[in-house]
Design a protein that fits this description.
The chain is of the alpha/beta class. The protein is built from 15 helices and eleven strands. Helix 1 packs antiparallel against helix 13 and helix 8 packs across helix 13.
């Protein structure tokens, strides 16, 4: 009976949460600058009776909202940062709202809001039924730069959780069954000596030469790393003018490996290459860790629990208008991409021309290789069992981090997927709170087997502070 009442409450209150998600979509903010989104969501939780802790990990836009007392303690994770350059109207033509502006191409406007929707709905059931336990919503900034949760984890805010639940917008309904790659984000800085590049180049010591030699060495390293490793970089400072030998230059690397140890090994090897480049160019080299995410430790028990709620949660019903927008967005893809999207839709059992799966897809095989992507959710998954679901918020074939995704995540398609995710999470959490500990015991046993007693150690050193822009650090209430 409690589950039916939970779903009914959520269906009746959908307009409030749609408004929140659209407000955040209309005011996209990039990593560590999410003042509006964090303030909006935390205020809704505070007004609903949650206790707020702000400024977690030295980040003004990170917060924890808590309701209830005692155990079990369940976490619901939310994100709300946008991506640079992905501003887009709800349109199948490339129409930025703000040219070169940020946009929600990863759907975090939906991700963060669904968690609030689930948390508030659960609060009402705890009150109505006198259920023991604690619900926590974690407002997690800066997932797109893979470090917000790491700074929060370093403060210990996840340590006493019995389990955590979250989700991500996608183009089908399915549990997230694939591990992600561990990652180290590191920026290398070289310092040399400036000189006139034409008149006295022999007097200079080029920091840019050191950067380029490092990149050459890193590219040769690619042949000698484990399968699945990824090395990407961008030059963040290449000097100021061609006729001045650069006395300062920097390069920013992402190093990905199958697990934390593999990413750490890549860093050690890259630093040796950079030190060699420094010797060759007679420059000085320094480096700073900007992020260090763990691989995602998938908890299949919690994923199965989320999946079991699929019928009670009432799958979304997509309209003809939704279907037209979906087809129009897929029509903007390159021919090979569009063909692959249509083929995948048929493989998912959809009728020809249908691109919005409402039913659930089977999860991928357990124990497979990690995906090429990374997330700071991985850190939380090595502290406590984490369940994660994906729901249909965009048509099959539309990839996140694209303008087409920004359009979908601001449309009714995205909002319907958001509500479905919120109901799945709320129902799964309700079951964990009322099944006398059976679900949590199963999830904990799997977690202990997968971690094999290893303790979580943050990969971002204690002395490294979150890179919060000064206007945000001294800004408004968050």
């Amino acid at each position: 009976m409690g589950k039916k009442q939970l779903v009914q409450w959520m269906l009746e209150h959908e307009p409030l949460y749609e408004d929140l998600a659209l407000q955040i979509w209309e005011r996209p903010e990039t990593a560590y600058e999410e003042l509006f989104a964090s303030s909006l969501l935390s205020s809704v939780l505070e007004e609903a009776g949650f206790r707020l802790r702000r400024g977690i990990g030295g980040i003004p836009t990170a917060f924890v909202a808590e309701y209830g007392s005692g155990g079990p303690v369940l976490g619901i994770l939310g994100e709300y940062d946008a991506l640079p350059g992905l501003s887009q109207k709800v349109s199948a033509e490339r129409e930025p709202v703000t040219p070169n502006g940020p946009g929600h191409g990863c759907g975090h406007n939906l991700l963060g809001t669904a968690g609030v929707e689930a948390a508030v709905a659960l609060k009402h059931r705890l009150e109505a039924e006198g259920i023991a336990g604690t619900i926590r919503y974690y407002g997690c900034p800066a997932e797109e730069v893979l470090s917000g949760k790491t700074f929060m984890a370093r403060e210990g805010v996840f340590d006493d959780l019995d389990a955590a639940l979250t989700w991500h917008p996608g183009s089908q309904n399915t549990p997230w069954s694939t591990p992600t790659s561990a990652l180290t984000s590191v920026e290398l800085h070289f310092h040399g000596r400036a000189a006139h590049a034409g008149g006295a180049p022999h007097l200079g010591r080029s920091a840019l030469d050191a950067v380029e030699l490092t990149n050459i060495g890193a590219n040769y390293l690619r042949e000698h790393v484990p399968d699945g490793s990824r090395i990407h970089y961008t030059i963040t400072n290449g000097g100021v003018a061609p006729n001045i030998v650069p006395d300062a230059a920097s390069v920013w690397y992402y190093l990905r490996g199958a697990n934390r140890e593999a990413a750490d090994e890549l860093l050690a090897r890259l630093l040796k290459i950079a030190q060699g480049a420094s010797l060759m160019t007679e420059t000085e080299m320094g480096w700073e860790i900007k992020g260090g995410a763990y691989s995602l430790n998938v908890n299949h028990s919690l994923n199965a629990l989320l999946t079991r709620q699929k019928d009670a949660a009432q799958a979304p019903s997509f309209s003809e208008e939704d279907r037209r927008l979906a087809l129009s967005l897929v029509d903007t893809l390159e021919p090979a991409q569009k063909e692959a999207a249509l083929a995948k839709a048929l493989k998912l059992g959809l009728p020809e021309g249908e691109l919005l799966p409402a039913g659930f897809s089977e999860p991928g095989p357990a124990g497979g290789p990690p995906s090429g992507g990374s997330t700071d959710l991985g850190d939380v998954s090595w502290i406590t069992p984490v369940g994660q679901i994906i729901t249909t918020c965009a048509p099959v074939g539309i990839q996140v981090h694209t303008w087409q995704a920004s359009a979908a995540f601001g449309s009714p398609i995205g909002l319907k997927g958001m509500h479905y995710a919120a109901r799945l999470i709320a129902l799964a959490a309700y079951e964990l709170l009322t099944d006398r500990g059976e679900g949590l015991a199963q999830a904990r046993a799997e977690f202990l087997a997968s971690t094999r007693g290893r303790s979580y150690v943050p990969a971002i050193p204690r002395e490294v502070l979150a890179p919060v822009p000064e206007p945000v650090r001294g800004g408004g209430r968050a």
